[in-house]
């Protein structure tokens, strides 16, 4: 090797020399260019991969909750014959875990919990996020601070998810025939319904439109059971998780087959604040259509009062560090 080449190798240093050897050995004339291109791909696609992977951690947390319930069931199966409250301990344990998750990851707050009655029925009507994780946090707060279990109405597809049945049974989740909803409220339970359901989860967006259509079933339930309706909305829920449901393919699949297959991305640790509005009392002179309209306006009022439109992920992240609310 000539003195000139040796001098050049010394100037390159060990990293440059390794690059030079690889170029010579592999016959690559521009190894640095390929490495730079690889760095660019990693810089672009790593954040994209993360935002689609984070929602899977919520699914993992749900399955860990289910695993805990199965262990709890096996450990306490001999007590079942002697106790009417077999699952109380399990519910409180999982509520504590979910409440901790909400506090750590989203700085979760709830405003108006005092509007949930300590006893007697009430129908909670809420806006449905892409993933209703805010509702899980709400359930945890009700269990821990009110000592009550809130029954829930969920879409049929949730009962087909492998392994979910025990979790749904323990937390009193059902697919919502009107008679069963009325029976739960007449028995003095709390009941929660999202009139927008899966459609709202998939097709609503950062402008927070309510996609209730002409649904009035929940209003009939409230009238038949003579229960008050309590509106509920969580600030920034669309900034935590977002859906690609508005892409034409996923929209068509849902409308054609009723399959909620749209990918969800996010998992961002944005600030979550749940707001409960004033109860809408039972009024025998109000029709189901009028009551449904009242409830929709009540939820919309919470959105208008507490959510900046359009939602913004960066702004929602910054709200973790200050307490300024949207101006009324």
UniProtKB/TrEMBL annotation:
This is Phospholipid/glycerol acyltransferase domain-containing protein. The chain crosses the membrane at residues 40-69. The keyword Transmembrane helix applies. Keywords: Membrane, Transmembrane, Transmembrane helix. The keyword Cell membrane does not apply. It comes from Synaphobranchus kaupii (Kaup's arrowtooth eel). GO terms for cellular component: membrane. Residues 109-232 form the Phospholipid/glycerol acyltransferase domain. GO terms for molecular function: acyltransferase activity.
